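2024-03-11 09:14:02 DEBUG pipeline.ingest accepted 1 chain
2024-03-11 09:14:02 DEBUG pipeline.ingest length=281
2024-03-11 09:14:03 DEBUG pipeline.predict start
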Amino acid sequence: MIDWHRAWPAPAKINLFLHVVGRRADGYHLLQTVFRFLDFGDTLRCEPRADGRIVLATPLPGVAPETDLTVRAATALRAATGATAGVTLHLEKRLPMGGGLGGGSSDAATTLLALNRLWRINLTSPQLQQIGLALGADVPIFVHGRSAFAEGIGERFADVRLPSAWYLVLVPGVAVPTPEIFRSPQLRRDTPAIAASDWRPGSGHNDLEPVACALYPEVGRHLDWLRRYGDARMSGSGACCFVEFVDEASARTAFAALPADMRGFLAAGLDRHPIQALAGE
Protein backbone atom coordinates (compact mmCIF):
# COMPACT_ATOMS: atom_id res chain seq x y z
CA MET A 1 0.00 0.00 0.00
CA ILE A 2 1.31 3.43 -0.97
CA ASP A 3 1.27 5.76 2.04
CA TRP A 4 1.69 9.40 1.03
CA HIS A 5 1.28 10.45 4.66
CA ARG A 6 4.46 8.70 5.82
CA ALA A 7 7.42 10.66 7.14
CA TRP A 8 10.66 9.53 5.46
CA PRO A 9 13.82 9.78 7.59
CA ALA A 10 17.08 11.19 6.21
CA PRO A 11 19.69 10.23 8.81
CA ALA A 12 23.07 11.77 9.49
CA LYS A 13 26.22 9.82 8.76
CA ILE A 14 29.61 9.98 10.38
CA ASN A 15 32.94 8.84 8.97
CA LEU A 16 34.61 6.64 11.58
CA PHE A 17 37.84 7.29 9.69
CA LEU A 18 38.66 8.96 6.37
CA HIS A 19 41.90 8.39 4.46
CA VAL A 20 42.88 10.00 1.17
CA VAL A 21 44.87 7.31 -0.61
CA GLY A 22 45.40 8.91 -4.02
CA ARG A 23 43.93 10.98 -6.80
CA ARG A 24 42.47 10.06 -10.16
CA ALA A 25 43.52 11.66 -13.43
CA ASP A 26 40.24 13.59 -13.50
CA GLY A 27 41.06 15.21 -10.15
CA TYR A 28 38.71 13.17 -7.96
CA HIS A 29 40.31 12.00 -4.74
CA LEU A 30 40.48 8.30 -3.91
CA LEU A 31 39.20 7.64 -0.42
CA GLN A 32 38.81 4.92 2.16
CA THR A 33 36.30 5.35 4.97
CA VAL A 34 33.71 3.64 7.12
CA PHE A 35 30.25 5.15 7.08
CA ARG A 36 27.88 4.81 10.00
CA PHE A 37 24.36 6.22 10.20
CA LEU A 38 23.00 8.00 13.27
CA ASP A 39 19.55 7.99 14.80
CA PHE A 40 19.24 11.71 14.12
CA GLY A 41 18.57 13.63 10.94
CA ASP A 42 16.16 15.37 8.61
CA THR A 43 12.61 14.31 7.74
CA LEU A 44 10.95 14.36 4.32
CA ARG A 45 7.26 14.31 3.54
CA CYS A 46 5.91 13.99 0.01
CA GLU A 47 2.60 15.24 -1.35
CA PRO A 48 1.33 14.18 -4.79
CA ARG A 49 0.64 16.84 -7.40
CA ALA A 50 -1.65 16.59 -10.41
CA ASP A 51 0.17 19.22 -12.47
CA GLY A 52 3.43 17.25 -12.92
CA ARG A 53 5.59 19.87 -11.18
CA ILE A 54 8.32 19.20 -8.62
CA VAL A 55 8.00 21.81 -5.88
CA LEU A 56 10.02 22.29 -2.70
CA ALA A 57 7.68 23.74 -0.10
CA THR A 58 10.49 24.43 2.37
CA PRO A 59 13.37 26.10 0.52
CA LEU A 60 16.56 26.77 2.46
CA PRO A 61 17.66 30.40 2.89
CA GLY A 62 20.14 31.30 0.18
CA VAL A 63 19.57 28.08 -1.81
CA ALA A 64 17.58 28.32 -5.03
CA PRO A 65 14.91 25.58 -5.00
CA GLU A 66 16.00 24.20 -8.36
CA THR A 67 19.52 23.61 -7.00
CA ASP A 68 18.32 21.91 -3.79
CA LEU A 69 19.39 18.27 -3.74
CA THR A 70 15.87 17.03 -3.03
CA VAL A 71 14.54 18.73 -6.17
CA ARG A 72 17.53 17.59 -8.19
CA ALA A 73 17.04 14.02 -6.98
CA ALA A 74 13.35 13.99 -7.92
CA THR A 75 14.18 15.50 -11.31
CA ALA A 76 16.97 12.98 -11.91
CA LEU A 77 14.69 10.06 -11.02
CA ARG A 78 12.09 11.22 -13.52
CA ALA A 79 14.70 11.80 -16.21
CA ALA A 80 16.16 8.31 -15.72
CA THR A 81 12.83 6.52 -15.80
CA GLY A 82 10.45 8.58 -17.91
CA ALA A 83 8.14 9.16 -14.95
CA THR A 84 5.88 12.19 -15.23
CA ALA A 85 4.28 12.42 -11.78
CA GLY A 86 4.54 15.60 -9.76
CA VAL A 87 5.34 16.05 -6.09
CA THR A 88 5.58 18.68 -3.39
CA LEU A 89 8.51 18.04 -1.06
CA HIS A 90 8.33 19.11 2.57
CA LEU A 91 11.75 18.89 4.21
CA GLU A 92 12.30 19.41 7.93
CA LYS A 93 16.00 20.26 8.36
CA ARG A 94 17.96 19.40 11.48
CA LEU A 95 21.36 18.65 9.97
CA PRO A 96 23.67 21.64 9.42
CA MET A 97 24.98 22.63 6.02
CA GLY A 98 28.75 22.19 5.68
CA GLY A 99 28.80 19.92 8.71
CA GLY A 100 30.24 16.72 7.27
CA LEU A 101 27.16 14.76 8.34
CA GLY A 102 25.89 14.21 4.80
CA GLY A 103 22.73 16.23 5.24
CA GLY A 104 22.15 17.20 1.61
CA SER A 105 23.24 13.79 0.34
CA SER A 106 20.97 12.05 2.82
CA ASP A 107 18.05 14.25 1.76
CA ALA A 108 18.71 13.37 -1.89
CA ALA A 109 18.91 9.65 -1.15
CA THR A 110 15.71 9.70 0.88
CA THR A 111 13.99 11.53 -1.97
CA LEU A 112 15.10 8.77 -4.37
CA LEU A 113 14.08 5.99 -1.98
CA ALA A 114 10.71 7.54 -1.18
CA LEU A 115 9.69 8.48 -4.72
CA ASN A 116 10.89 5.15 -6.08
CA ARG A 117 8.14 3.60 -3.96
CA LEU A 118 5.50 6.32 -4.06
CA TRP A 119 5.71 6.61 -7.85
CA ARG A 120 5.83 2.77 -8.15
CA ILE A 121 9.03 2.88 -10.19
CA ASN A 122 10.70 0.00 -8.30
CA LEU A 123 14.29 0.52 -9.38
CA THR A 124 16.86 -1.65 -7.63
CA SER A 125 19.28 -0.25 -5.07
CA PRO A 126 22.23 -0.32 -7.53
CA GLN A 127 20.14 1.57 -10.09
CA LEU A 128 19.22 4.22 -7.53
CA GLN A 129 22.84 4.43 -6.42
CA GLN A 130 23.90 5.15 -9.99
CA ILE A 131 21.42 8.02 -10.20
CA GLY A 132 22.56 9.25 -6.80
CA LEU A 133 26.25 9.23 -7.69
CA ALA A 134 25.63 11.94 -10.28
CA LEU A 135 24.17 14.09 -7.48
CA GLY A 136 27.04 13.64 -5.03
CA ALA A 137 29.65 11.12 -3.93
CA ASP A 138 27.93 10.47 -0.57
CA VAL A 139 24.44 9.83 -1.97
CA PRO A 140 25.05 6.14 -2.86
CA ILE A 141 25.91 5.09 0.71
CA PHE A 142 22.57 6.40 1.95
CA VAL A 143 20.80 4.41 -0.77
CA HIS A 144 22.91 1.35 0.05
CA GLY A 145 21.65 1.73 3.57
CA ARG A 146 24.11 -0.26 5.69
CA SER A 147 27.28 0.45 7.65
CA ALA A 148 30.07 -0.03 5.16
CA PHE A 149 33.74 0.29 4.36
CA ALA A 150 33.80 2.49 1.26
CA GLU A 151 36.46 2.98 -1.41
CA GLY A 152 36.99 4.73 -4.73
CA ILE A 153 35.40 8.18 -4.53
CA GLY A 154 33.18 6.67 -1.84
CA GLU A 155 30.89 4.56 -4.03
CA ARG A 156 32.24 1.01 -3.59
CA PHE A 157 31.04 -0.72 -0.43
CA ALA A 158 31.83 -3.69 1.76
CA ASP A 159 29.37 -4.07 4.64
CA VAL A 160 30.89 -4.08 8.12
CA ARG A 161 29.67 -5.09 11.56
CA LEU A 162 30.08 -2.38 14.17
CA PRO A 163 29.64 -2.53 17.93
CA SER A 164 26.67 -0.70 19.40
CA ALA A 165 27.63 2.83 20.42
CA TRP A 166 26.37 6.30 21.25
CA TYR A 167 27.89 9.47 19.88
CA LEU A 168 28.18 13.02 21.14
CA VAL A 169 28.30 15.19 18.03
CA LEU A 170 29.31 18.84 18.26
CA VAL A 171 28.26 21.40 15.66
CA PRO A 172 30.75 24.30 15.44
CA GLY A 173 29.19 27.51 14.20
CA VAL A 174 31.00 27.40 10.86
CA ALA A 175 30.20 25.79 7.52
CA VAL A 176 33.19 24.05 5.92
CA PRO A 177 32.99 23.91 2.10
CA THR A 178 34.18 20.47 0.99
CA PRO A 179 35.85 21.73 -2.23
CA GLU A 180 38.00 24.14 -0.21
CA ILE A 181 39.40 21.28 1.87
CA PHE A 182 40.13 19.07 -1.12
CA ARG A 183 41.82 21.94 -2.99
CA SER A 184 44.27 22.63 -0.19
CA PRO A 185 47.94 21.93 -1.02
CA GLN A 186 48.35 20.92 2.64
CA LEU A 187 45.97 17.97 2.28
CA ARG A 188 47.69 14.62 2.59
CA ARG A 189 46.87 12.45 -0.41
CA ASP A 190 49.16 9.43 0.04
CA THR A 191 47.93 7.55 3.11
CA PRO A 192 48.61 3.85 2.43
CA ALA A 193 45.51 1.93 1.42
CA ILE A 194 44.28 -0.91 3.60
CA ALA A 195 42.08 -3.92 2.92
CA ALA A 196 38.53 -3.67 4.21
CA SER A 197 39.08 -6.88 6.15
CA ASP A 198 42.04 -5.33 7.98
CA TRP A 199 40.15 -2.33 9.37
CA ARG A 200 39.13 -2.49 13.03
CA PRO A 201 36.82 -0.11 14.95
CA GLY A 202 38.86 2.72 16.45
CA SER A 203 41.68 2.53 13.92
CA GLY A 204 42.55 5.11 11.29
CA HIS A 205 42.18 8.88 11.31
CA ASN A 206 40.71 11.71 9.21
CA ASP A 207 43.19 13.13 6.67
CA LEU A 208 40.98 16.19 6.14
CA GLU A 209 40.99 17.17 9.81
CA PRO A 210 44.32 19.06 9.97
CA VAL A 211 43.39 21.20 6.96
CA ALA A 212 39.92 21.99 8.31
CA CYS A 213 41.32 22.89 11.74
CA ALA A 214 43.92 25.21 10.20
CA LEU A 215 41.31 27.02 8.12
CA TYR A 216 38.57 26.97 10.76
CA PRO A 217 40.03 27.08 14.30
CA GLU A 218 36.58 26.56 15.82
CA VAL A 219 36.70 22.97 14.56
CA GLY A 220 39.93 22.40 16.45
CA ARG A 221 38.51 23.98 19.60
CA HIS A 222 35.54 21.63 19.57
CA LEU A 223 37.77 18.63 18.95
CA ASP A 224 40.00 19.62 21.87
CA TRP A 225 37.02 19.70 24.21
CA LEU A 226 35.73 16.32 23.02
CA ARG A 227 39.12 14.65 23.48
CA ARG A 228 38.71 14.66 27.24
CA TYR A 229 36.24 11.81 26.61
CA GLY A 230 38.12 9.77 24.03
CA ASP A 231 39.44 9.64 20.48
CA ALA A 232 37.46 12.54 19.02
CA ARG A 233 37.33 12.93 15.25
CA MET A 234 35.94 15.22 12.62
CA SER A 235 33.32 13.74 10.30
CA GLY A 236 33.87 14.02 6.57
CA SER A 237 35.28 17.40 5.61
CA GLY A 238 33.82 18.97 8.78
CA ALA A 239 32.82 20.99 10.61
CA CYS A 240 31.02 18.53 12.92
CA CYS A 241 33.08 16.46 15.36
CA PHE A 242 32.19 13.42 17.42
CA VAL A 243 33.35 11.10 20.15
CA GLU A 244 32.07 7.59 20.78
CA PHE A 245 30.62 6.15 24.00
CA VAL A 246 29.77 2.56 24.84
CA ASP A 247 26.40 3.46 26.34
CA GLU A 248 23.77 6.20 26.48
CA ALA A 249 24.39 7.07 30.13
CA SER A 250 28.05 7.93 29.53
CA ALA A 251 27.14 10.01 26.50
CA ARG A 252 24.50 11.94 28.46
CA THR A 253 26.95 12.67 31.27
CA ALA A 254 29.36 14.23 28.79
CA PHE A 255 26.57 16.12 27.02
CA ALA A 256 25.51 17.64 30.33
CA ALA A 257 29.00 19.12 30.71
CA LEU A 258 28.92 20.85 27.31
CA PRO A 259 30.06 24.50 27.60
CA ALA A 260 27.41 27.15 27.08
CA ASP A 261 29.07 28.38 23.88
CA MET A 262 28.99 24.95 22.20
CA ARG A 263 26.07 23.06 20.77
CA GLY A 264 25.53 19.51 19.65
CA PHE A 265 23.36 16.44 19.97
CA LEU A 266 23.39 12.82 21.10
CA ALA A 267 22.57 9.92 18.81
CA ALA A 268 22.79 6.17 18.76
CA GLY A 269 24.69 4.51 15.94
CA LEU A 270 22.52 2.62 13.45
CA ASP A 271 23.40 -0.57 11.58
CA ARG A 272 21.14 0.27 8.65
CA HIS A 273 19.18 3.12 7.15
CA PRO A 274 15.86 3.62 8.99
CA ILE A 275 13.91 3.43 5.74
CA GLN A 276 15.03 -0.20 5.44
CA ALA A 277 13.67 -0.79 8.94
CA LEU A 278 10.38 0.89 8.01
CA ALA A 279 10.05 -1.47 5.06
CA GLY A 280 11.08 -4.54 7.04
CA GLU A 281 14.04 -5.20 4.76
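2024-03-11 09:14:41 DEBUG pipeline.report The chain has a mean pLDDT of 95.
2024-03-11 09:14:41 DEBUG pipeline.predict end
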